[in-house]
């Protein structure tokens, strides 16, 4: 893990992050995304840190993974949940500590911020490998099911 460097994403990472989002959607949900729409979405979030923050893991100066953080207010806790989303590590980089390093970085940032009450993420029910990774890192199944009503 010591050969990994975690940094905030830069504007020149947007194209790569969009291609990785495309790959993740296909791999996890067999959904084809509109690359132009995803690129515009990432660009909009990148331009407004209130929407999201992106982080990149670099190994030897090359990007090898990413994740995005969004926020959800908890009135029960009077604090923010940070949601880990848009996680992607290319297949050839998996099992090399990339997500672990990204997670450790975000956990350290959240732990230093008194207005943050914890980290959350969602995972496909069938993605047992990812679930094991999250549990290994100390996360637990929160016992919720996610429902949605798409409008677009």
Largest sheet: 5 strands, mixed
What does the radius of gyration come to? 15 Å
- Our measurement of the CA-to-CA distance between the termini, rounded to an integer number of angstroms, reads 40 Å
Assign the CATH topology: Aminopeptidase
What is the CATH superfamily label? Gcn5-related N-acetyltransferase (GNAT)
Quick one: CATH class? Alpha Beta
- Note the total helix count: 4
Give the structural class.
alpha+beta
Q: Could you state the order of secondary-structure elements as H and E? A: EHHEEEHEH
Oligomer: single chain
Low-confidence stretches: none
Number of DSSP-assigned strands:
5
Strand order of the largest sheet: 1-2-3-4-5
Strand content: 25-35%
Name the CATH architecture: 3-Layer(aba) Sandwich
Average pLDDT score: 93
How do the helices and strands line up, and which of them pair or pack?
Blueprint (H helix, E strand, L loop, with lengths): L3 E5 L5 H16 L5 H13 L5 E7 L2 E13 L4 E10 L9 H14 L4 E6 L6 H9 L16
Parallel strand pairs: 4-5
Antiparallel strand pairs: 1-2, 2-3, 3-4
Helix pairs in contact: 1-2
């Amino acid at each position: 893990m010591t050969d990994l460097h975690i940094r905030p994403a830069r504007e020149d990472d947007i194209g790569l992050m969009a291609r990785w989002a495309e790959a993740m959607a296909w791999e996890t949900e067999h959904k084809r995304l509109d690359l132009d729409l995803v690129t515009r979405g990432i660009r909009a979030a990148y331009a407004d840190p209130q929407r999201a923050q992106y982080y990149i893991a670099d190994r030897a100066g090359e990007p090898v993974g990413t994740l995005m953080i969004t926020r959800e207010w908890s009135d029960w806790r009077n604090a923010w949940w940070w949601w880990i989303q848009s996680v992607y590590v290319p297949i050839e980089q998996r099992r090399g500590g990339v997500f672990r390093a990204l997670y450790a970085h975000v956990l350290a940032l959240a732990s230093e911020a008194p207005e943050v009450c914890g980290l959350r993420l969602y995972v496909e029910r069938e993605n047992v490998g990812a679930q094991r990774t999250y549990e290994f890192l100390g996360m637990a199944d929160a016992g919720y099911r996610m429902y949605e009503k798409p409008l677009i």
